[in-house]
């Protein structure tokens, strides 16, 4: 594979940014600025709830679109940090897969979106026990359906870590990650650059709001959330100690997906852009991709963070690449 390749034998043209969305920042914020909200009024939809069996009383939930069964696999979409099943990129991807005839489940991770106030705890970068419970529940409810999982940003890191932990036991028959922070320490340093001030303010405000709405949050942790002045401080003073990692460096080391990539045994497409303003490309370049034939890397010149608005289509390039990947697998 060349350094900038689709990674696909057959698929969409190599990614090229669409005017006027040139550069990593405009690619990243395009969905927020334009808000191309996909609707699902003509599709059979039901809400699924997944209780977590850890004594917290917490749940995950999601919206299931379309009939499931022995035909096309169920596509499970996993959002990123401060996102939810209603995030614009999740809705747009769901519409793409539905147009191709796949059933789709848009998932809310623990405490995301509408279930925020119902939960005592929240998801974090490597909370793979939640994905393990989600996939087990789906297989129990839909034994005739294969599952394909797609994770975006933090959800992509969580998915890749789960796949590596499970190896051949993993439930999905195939997977895709888009813009995943596979090295959390490197991502933290990259994100904290001065040029990302607007992003930091936006993300930290949303992280605080989500955490402060949790059920039964202690005054000590509420104070830590409120006092954090950066994402690193938030992780170091709140996420890491609350969930048993002590400090941010330990949390980052134990929850990054990169060390688990070599153990993935399901066909997995890994998409990332070299101009992602949030997540650096260097950790991807350090991976020996040829050592694991289950991995198909797609490192792109341009695309931003979960952007990939290409010049040859109004559909996001990462969706089209994922569709070609599944087609190549016969799924």
List keywords for this structure.
Rossmann fold; eight-stranded mixed beta sheet; alpha/beta; 331 residues
Question: Can you describe this structure?
Answer:
With 331 residues, the chain is of the alpha/beta class. The protein has 2 domains: 24-183 and 260-328, Alpha/Beta hydrolase fold, catalytic domain (Rossmann fold, 3-Layer(aba) Sandwich); 190-255, no CATH class. It has 11 helices and 8 strands. Strands 1-2-4-3-5-6-7-8 form an 8-stranded mixed beta sheet, with helices on both faces. The longest helix is centred in the middle third of the chain and has 16 residues, at 197-212. The two termini are 23 Å apart.
What is the secondary structure topology, with strand pairs?
Blueprint: H1 24-34, E1 45-51, E2 59-65, E3 74-78, H2 88-99, E4 104-108, H3 128-141, E5 147-152, H4 154-166, E6 174-178, H5 184-191, H6 197-212, H7 219-227, H8 231-242, H9 248-255, E7 268-273, H10 282-285, E8 295-300, H11 317-328
Parallel strand pairs: 3-4, 3-5, 5-6, 6-7, 7-8
Antiparallel strand pairs: 1-2, 2-4
Helix pairs in contact: 3-4, 7-8, 8-9
Shape: globular
Portion of residues in beta strands equals 5-15%
Q: What is the radius of gyration?
A: 19 Å
Runs with pLDDT <50, length 5+?
none
**Number of discrete domains:** 2
* CATH fold-type name of the largest domain: Rossmann fold
The helix/strand class is alpha/beta
Reading the helices and strands in chain order gives HEEEHEHEHEHHHHHEHEH
């Amino acid at each position: 594979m060349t350094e900038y390749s689709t990674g696909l034998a057959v698929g969409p043209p190599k990614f090229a940014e669409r005017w006027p969305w040139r550069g990593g920042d405009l690619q990243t914020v395009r969905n927020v600025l334009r808000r191309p909200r996909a609707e699902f009024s003509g599709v059979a939809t039901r809400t699924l709830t997944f209780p977590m069996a850890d004594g917290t009383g917490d749940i995950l939930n999601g919206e299931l679109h379309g009939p499931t069964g022995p035909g096309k696999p169920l596509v499970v979409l996993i959002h990123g940090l401060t996102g939810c099943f209603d995030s614009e990129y999740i809705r747009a991807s769901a519409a793409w897969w539905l147009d191709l005839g796949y059933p789709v489940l848009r998932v809310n991770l623990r405490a995301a979106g509408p279930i925020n106030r119902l939960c005592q705890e929240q998801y974090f970068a490597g909370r793979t026990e939640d994905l393990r419970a989600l996939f087990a529940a789906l297989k129990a409810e839909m034994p005739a359906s294969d599952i394909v999982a797609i994770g975006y940003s933090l959800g992509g890191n969580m998915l890749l870590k789960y796949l590596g932990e499970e190896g051949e036991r993993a439930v999905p028959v195939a997977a895709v990650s888009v813009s995943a922070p596979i090295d959390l320490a490197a991502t933290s340093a990259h994100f904290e650059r001065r040029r990302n001030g607007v992003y930091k303010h936006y993300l930290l405000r949303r992280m605080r709001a989500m955490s402060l709405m949790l059920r039964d949050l202690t005054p000590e942790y509420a104070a830590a959330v409120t006092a954090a002045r950066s994402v690193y401080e938030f992780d170091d003073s709140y996420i890491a100690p609350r969930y048993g990692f002590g400090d941010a460096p330990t949390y980052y080391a134990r929850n990054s997906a990169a060390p688990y990539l070599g153990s993935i045994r399901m066909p997995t497409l890994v998409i990332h852009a070299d101009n992602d303003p949030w997540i650096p490309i260097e950790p991807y370049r350090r991976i020996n991709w040829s050592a694991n034939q289950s991995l198909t890397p797609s490192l792109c010149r341009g695309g931003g963070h979960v952007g990939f608005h290409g010049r040859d289509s109004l559909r996001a390039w990462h969706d089209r690449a994922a569709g070609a990947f599944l087609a190549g697998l016969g799924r």
